Amino acid sequence: MTDTRRRHLDRFDVFAPHAAGVTVRIDGQDFAMIPATELEDHHPRGLDPKPLYSTGERGLQGWWTLPDSAAGQVPETTVRYGYVLSKTKDPGTKKEQKITSEVLPDPRSPRQPQGVHDLSCTFDAHEFQWSDGQWNGKPLEGAILYELHVGTFTPEGTFEAAIEHLDELVELGVDTIELLPVNGFNGHYNWGYDGVAWYTVQEEYGGPLGYQRFVDACHARGLAVVQDVVYNHLGPSGNYLPQFLEIFTAGNSSWGEQINLDAWGSDGVRDLILDNVRMWVEDYHVDGFRVDAVHALKDERARHILQEMSQVAHQTAARLGRSSYLIAESDMNDPRMIEPVADNGLGMDAQWLDDWHHAAHWALTGEEQGYYEDFAGLSSLAKSYRAGYYHDGSFSSFRGRSHGHPVDADTHKPWQFVSYIMNHDQVGNRAAGDRFSQYLSTDQQVLSAAVLLTQPFTPMLFMGEEWGASTPWPFFTSHPEPELAEAVRKGRIGEFARMGWQESEIADPQDPATFDSAVLQRSERDDDADHARVHTAYGELIALRRSTPELTEQDFRSIRAVADEASRTLVLYRGELGRVAEGEPREGLNGVAVVFNFSDAEAKVPAEISTQAQTLWSSGDVQLSAGELGGAVVNLPAYGAAVLRV
């Protein structure tokens, strides 16, 4: 049989290690499958057998495929299909009692056009004519990220509609899109973190073809695409993976049953994850990954799943002549997360930095409930500027224990930490999903833009933040099962009660109006002077960041921050000014000083700079005068900020 005809059959390969028999139903016709071990040199789903792929390492055991005799009978065009499994009732025992399943969707389904509970649909990812042949990827260092939820980015909620606004982001200065999860979930709209079909692109967004078009359009404009992936849990509806393999193990995470990465049967689960990483790089040309809640990945094997993901992502991209990187969402404050696998690190290239966010949030809002209680005081922001982790072994009152480990200034770089003043979690996990624009003044929003875009870490904007969007972004779901919908409502009420919010403040996640309220309204950006002012500030500060080397210098030793709690002011020194130690002379040093006034009154801020310093950017009228003990005094308006060059 030719390779082409064999590959046509291979697309129905399925991993079901405990099945006594497997039947695939294709367009209503049943075909009996055979163990893949009965074919010589077979590679499941056409996967390369090189050691890069875990499937190739572990062999064909547990895989089922169609016999060669089915080649002339299986349709070659798009078809709908599903599986009927004859299997042992309990694969963890020796019992031979058999049961036969209902028709199940494909665990690696590329399309679910009728939803996650229905049959799967074939999709040939290699048919798309890419135009990004000259695209080699874009490094995370120096990037400006933009977190985007496809369903609420436009009223249409599709990739096609999102493409129409990419030029606006390029003009703003964004160079990397971080997409919230797009894999298949039950219902018509969702944050994406209730996904159950890891290989599927949600049909409402445009499906897999729409995704390819979006990535191609991004690359044509010089925009990289980072895909948010969720391997630490599965959604509550439409998960048929337990019918095929041991996807769960004993215990629970914060979001439900624990994904099985290290117990009996975990090889197949790891293959499912690693081949999915390969798919995004190879079939959809993504440039990187944001890996959700890696602290929930329980893995005690000698080689951690994150290390294997790092290898697969990097090597797949390199084989295709491109680059790739992985960003971990981690609250462990463990620098091993971003150390290379070769050095026994976990191999992530970067991680989200919640500590800096929490400290900045306190400085901008004064909120102290929940985990913000650890970050009260500008000294916490000053420490995070210069150390990355605020909790680097210090006591965390929110956790009731000491937490974290210091970052090594010789090993780690500021760009390896992605930080933000808003993101889907920090907005959506508020009771009403309210953004800064709903409780901060325009002056405070411009100040927050300056805080974000002059920090030493990799900045990320949350969609709409750039013009102070007035639309909230609350948690929303569309579970069709009434009992599940009610459980989600009650769960949110209980969760927010622990944070001090009242039930009356909580948006109903199942109410369609909650979802509708989150859709961006771009008309306000151009029609309202306050929104336009915020948008202008973001554009100016991004341009300033790109043209001012000191703002992106990648050395923790070039960062120094001095806070004054009484006046609620902070000065961030970068370049030579950042490297000078306490008591050393400052005369003749070059660098940049960023001066912030977090108070509602005009402030006179002492700074270790010359009165002749050049104002590169300011949010209002700024005046410099001589200080009594040398240096300059920077006069800032309420909620003012200035970037000054010496």
TrEMBL record:
Q: Where is the active site?
A: D292, E329
GO cellular component terms attached to this protein's record: cytoplasm
Q: Name one GO molecular function term.
A: 4-alpha-D-(1->4)-alpha-D-glucanotrehalose trehalohydrolase activity
Q: Where in the cell is it found?
A: Cytoplasm
Question: Which keywords belong to this entry?
Answer: Carbohydrate metabolism, Cytoplasm, Glycosidase, Hydrolase
Keyword Lyase attributed: no
Tell me the segments the record calls region Disordered. 89-116
InterPro entries per the UniProt record, alphabetical? GH, GH13_cat_dom, Ig-like_fold, Trehalose_TreZ, Trehalose_TreZ_E-set_sf
Its annotated pathway reads:
Glycan biosynthesis; trehalose biosynthesis
Q: Where is the composition biased (Basic and acidic residues)?
A: 89-99
- Looking at the UniProt record, the site noted as Transition state stabilizer sits at D425
Instruction: Kindly give the Gene3D superfamilies that the UniProt entry links to this protein.
Output: E-set domains of sugar-utilizing enzymes, Glycosidases, Immunoglobulins
Ligand binding (substrate): 290-295, 354-358, 424-429
- What top-level branch of life does the organism fall under? Bacteria
Which GO terms of type biological process are on file?
Answer: trehalose biosynthetic process
Q: Which residues form the Glycosyl hydrolase family 13 catalytic domain?
A: 128-492
Q: Which Pfam families does the UniProt entry name for this protein?
A: Alpha-amylase (PF00128)
- Reactions performed catalytically: hydrolysis of (1->4)-alpha-D-glucosidic linkage in 4-alpha-D-[(1->4)-alpha-D-glucanosyl]n trehalose to yield trehalose and (1->4)-alpha-D-glucan
- Main EC class the enzyme belongs to: hydrolase
Q: What is its EC number?
A: 3.2.1.141
Q: Family, per the entry?
A: Belongs to the glycosyl hydrolase 13 family.
Stated name of the protein: Malto-oligosyltrehalose trehalohydrolase
Q: Give the source species.
A: Kocuria subflava
